[in-house]
Protein: Ribose 5-phosphate isomerase B
Organism: Belliella aquatica
Amino acid sequence: MSKKIAIGGDHAGFAYKKEMIAKLEAAGYEIKDFGPYSDASADYPDFVHPLADAIEKGEFEQGILICGSGNGVAITANKHQGIRAALCWNQDLAALSRQHNDANVLALPARFISFDLALELAEVFLTTEFEGGRHATRVNKIACK
C-alpha cells in the first residue's frame, strides 16, 4: 500500500503543488489535493483546515502545504491539536522536523525556494522517521490539554 499524503496551500503555491502532485504520484504516493485548484487569489485557511482535519482523523499519514512564505499555512495548520506543521527551507530542517519533532505536515515557502528544492524537501520529509526516545517525551507535551 502506498503512503497517503494530503496536499494543499494557496494561489502562491499552486504551480509548485500541481507539479509536486505529479512527481509524488509518479513515485508511488497516493495524493489528495485539498486545493486551491487554480492560481486565482485564494484564502489558505479554506484549504488548510480541511487538510488538517483529514490528517487528525487518520485519513492521511502526512501533509504538505505550500504558500508564498510557508508561514500562513503553518500557522493555520498548527491551530489543530493533532498537527505539527514545520516550515522548512533546507534538507536539515526537513529531516530534523521529522526526527525530533514528529512533524506530520511540511510547510514550504514557494516564493523563497526553487521547485527542485521543494521536491527534495518533500522527499526528505516523507522518508525520514521519527526517532522517538527523549524526543517523544517532548512531542507529547506540545498539544494543549
